């Protein structure tokens, strides 16, 4: 009997069910379900930047191809944004519009690495980054970081300990998904100096730049613009995850190389999505302010209920449930939470050092539903208010 063609081992090694290993059970779950396992928002985009606000009368050709670098008007607006907001001396050639942040990191890593090389990832991390690195046939090297280091010196030492001759890049996320930490400028400058000394690329994931509740967001490109690739997303900034629009900012030569990879994979993000993103840039400032306050309240309330420190930024809480696990391990705990209607992401998807942790997104449901979900989780972990 003939055999089926093989699946490449490198792809076979990539995890499939990233955000929930219980998809088969979720599909048949009954009752109210609170999907706190995926990072999204319950809010619709701002009025004027929704798909129903676009028309071919105003935007002829909105369903056709646009330039593979990005819609020209959006590129122009992004140049002004990153200059004013991020302190990056960008030109048009410095920007590539991408299919979300995922579509920015994939061509960036594809551009800068060769099979067998290594990318350092500060952990715990955004669950998809590990698989994106593996997809390029590159080895992800996890650097225990966000819950381990307390000074700029310790931050650099942690990175140095995992750097080898095969290391080509370092992935940094601030505000952090999933810990909510916001890295101080002093730390980022020290990390950038280390990257320069070791001749590494710096991959800066800044998708939660607008959602800082304590501290200040600083773009590492201010310190090492010649080697920093900055990643941003309309998905997180403006509640437009389904539109699939993000952007990559960096040295012109690197952006041109990343554009080659992006063109030969997704070609370009949806034209209509880019037009909606432009509208959001023009009209969405008040929306972000409202969302920031709503997320801050939700995160603070959830942290109090669960006995955690309030997040400094982002939209996640990260919780170690080791004392609550029985012989079934974390999967049993996640099943029990599913029985409560609460979906959580397993901590191992954020790093190999976190097999007993869970992640929850506090922006994924409206306030009343989030409060109920957190109440159920607090009861499950024995921290319900009395």
Strand arrangement within the widest β-sheet reads: 2-8-7-6-5-3-4
The structure class reads alpha/beta
Succession of helices and strands: HHEHEHEHEHEHEEHEHHHEHEEEH
Identify low-pLDDT runs: none
Average pLDDT level: 94
CATH architecture of the largest domain: 3-Layer(aba) Sandwich
Fourth-level CATH superfamily of the largest domain: Type I PLP-dependent aspartate aminotransferase-like (Major domain)
Shape: globular
Strand content: 5-15%
Number of strands: 12
Taking the alpha carbons of the first and last residues, their distance comes to 65 Å
State the helical fraction: 25-40%
CATH class placement of the largest domain: Alpha Beta
Q: Mind telling me the C-alpha Rg?
A: 21 Å
Domain unit count? 2
Major beta sheet, specifics? 7 strands, mixed
How many helices? The count is 13
Topology:
Layout: H1 9-12, H2 23-26, E1 34-35, H3 72-86, E2 95-98, H4 102-112, E3 118-123, H5 127-135, E4 139-144, H6 152-162, E5 167-173, H7 185-198, E6 201-205, E7 228-233, H8 234-238, E8 246-249, H9 252-263, H10 271-283, H11 285-306, E9 316-320, H12 329-339, E10 342-343, E11 345-346, E12 357-361, H13 367-380
Parallel strand pairs: 1-10, 3-4, 3-5, 5-6, 6-7
Antiparallel strand pairs: 2-8, 7-8, 9-12, 11-12
Helix pairs in contact: 3-10, 4-5, 4-9, 6-7, 11-13
């Amino acid at each position: 009997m003939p055999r089926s063609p093989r699946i490449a081992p490198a792809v076979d090694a990539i995890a499939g069910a990233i955000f929930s290993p219980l998809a088969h059970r979720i599909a048949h779950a009954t009752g109210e379900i609170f999907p706190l396992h995926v990072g999204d928002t319950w809010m619709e985009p701002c009025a004027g930047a929704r798909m129903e606000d676009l028309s071919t009368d105003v935007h002829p050709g909105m369903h056709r191809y646009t330039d593979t670098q990005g819609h020209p008007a959006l590129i122009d607006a992004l140049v002004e944004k990153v200059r004013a907001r991020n302190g990056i001396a960008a030109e048009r050639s410095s920007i590539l519009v991408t299919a979300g942040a995922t579509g920015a990191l994939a061509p960036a890593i594809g551009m800068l690495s060769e099979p067998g090389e290594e990318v350092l990832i500060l952990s715990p991390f955004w669950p998809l980054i590990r698989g994106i690195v593996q997809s390029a046939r590159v080895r992800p090297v996890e650097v225990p970081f966000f819950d381990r280091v307390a000074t700029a010196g310790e931050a650099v030492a942690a990175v140095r300990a995992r750097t080898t001759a095969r290391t080509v890049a370092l992935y940094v996320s601030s505000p952090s998904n999933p810990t909510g930490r916001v890295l101080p400028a002093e730390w980022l400058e020290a990390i950038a100096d280390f990257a320069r000394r070791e001749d590494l690329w710096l991959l800066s994931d800044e998708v939660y730049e607008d959602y800082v509740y304590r501290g200040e967001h600083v773009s590492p490109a201010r310190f090492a613009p010649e080697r920093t690739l900055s990643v941003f997303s309309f998905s997180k900034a403006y509640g437009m995850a389904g539109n699939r629009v993000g952007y990559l900012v960096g040295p012109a030569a690197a952006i041109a190389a990343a554009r080659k990879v992006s063109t030969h994979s997704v070609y370009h993000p949806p034209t209509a999505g880019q037009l909606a993103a432009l509208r959001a840039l023009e009209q969405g400032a008040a929306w972000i302010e409202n969302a920031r306050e709503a997320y801050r309240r939700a995160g603070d309330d959830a942290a109090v209920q669960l006995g955690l420190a309030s997040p400094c930024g982002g939209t996640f809480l990260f919780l170690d449930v080791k004392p609550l696990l029985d012989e079934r391990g974390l999967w049993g705990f996640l099943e029990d939470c599913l029985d409560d209607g609460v979906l959580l992401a397993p901590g191992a998807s954020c790093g190999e050092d976190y097999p007993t942790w869970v992640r929850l997104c506090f922006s994924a449901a409206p306030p009343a539903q989030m409060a109920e979900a957190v109440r159920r989780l607090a009861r499950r972990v024995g921290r319900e208010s009395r």
